[in-house]
Write a structure and sequence with these properties.
The chain is α/β, with parallel strands linked by helices and about 400 residues long. The chain has 15 helices and 16 strands. The structure holds 3-[(4S)-2,5-dioxoimidazolidin-4-yl]propanoic acid and fe (iii) ion. The site of fe (iii) ion has 5 residues, from loops.
Amino acid sequence: MMAPRWDLLLTHANLAGVAGDAPFGSIEDGAVACADGRIAWVGAMCDLPPGAEAMRIEDLGGALLTPGLVDCHTHLVFGGHRANEFDMRLNGASYEDVARAGGGIVSSVRATRAASEDELFAQSLPRARALLADGVTTLEIKSGYGLDLETERRMLRVARRIGESLGITVRTSFLGLHALPPEYRERRDDYVALVCDTMLPALAAEGLVDAVDAFCEKIAFTPAETRRLFERATRLGLPVKLHAEQLSDQGGAALVAAFDGLSADHLEHLGEAGIAAMAKAGTVAVLLPGAFYALRETQLPPVAALRGHGVPIAIATDCNPGTSPLLSLRLAANMACTLFRLTPEEALRGVTAHAARALGLHDRGTLAVGQRADLVAWNAQQPAELCYWIGGPLVRQAWIGARPL
Ligand code: DI6
Ligand code: FE
């Protein structure tokens, strides 16, 4: 049999994230070979096919090599910032005080509506770059700071431009039901109708929407309003996901699971019924420790119960200007371990394979033949180091489709 000819061969690496049952999916002194942007071979150095050749061979000298990280929940496109609210809250202002002072989501809505597409792109691209600098190779970006058709469109166009500009996969989520815009304060039914019957169909027809999300919460939208949106999304052939049980149990997790939703996100107040529904539907639990930390929340998500029901757990930054101005997925993983008691192995899977699954992507997130060759070599040797080191320049080299990033 002819010896294989690959495009790239990475040798002498400590592999983690390999499909299979080994702890961390580890293979010590392993190798990964790539061809046509995909993984063509993965295994121990001693098992390399004899005579194997590659256009580029890189000896990683024992460095850790993992799948590229997937940040499956961000709001990183927005105008302005809300550092002033951070200062107000540290000086004792309540959320109501902040809202009365014109803060909160509507503050970001004003700034986003006032920004041009180029201005939004220029303000948002550095945030995406920061996430890539810490190992992310696939991003999800939501709308939700426009709350009118033109600005929601502009946000989603900027999200697409970020993917094109950086050469990475960006999956977009339409989040028109994020907050009630000021001009609809007395007409919420009209706003929900605008989102479901005008905005979503239009933006979906323009190819700007990969999934549909909503904020199901007392301070946001009801389960009935969310269901109406999900029914429209389903008619349009779009998958759904949901900000659920962040501040109270509204039955959001069970609702998104009833639509075979990709994920339920936040989940601090998730109960048994929601967990069972998610387990049955295969809906991923996306934990967002950055918001838990920034809000100084005390209600922990039910990690043990999620584990017990076999619900896949993912971790994301929830990068947003209000409750989670977090620009490192590795730091989110560290918080998930320290605050939520995930194990480092769960955290690695939570920012790779499970995060990819929360976006409906099955072509990435593990080191397996046929997967995209989105890879990261780290200035580290052991997989637990990724959530152990708090900050720091841990990325040695990233590849997107086997091409250096
Ligand atoms: N939950 C949150 O924590 C953020 N959105 C959501 O649905 C808040 C976003 C913001 O404060 O700008
Ligand atoms: Fe969010």
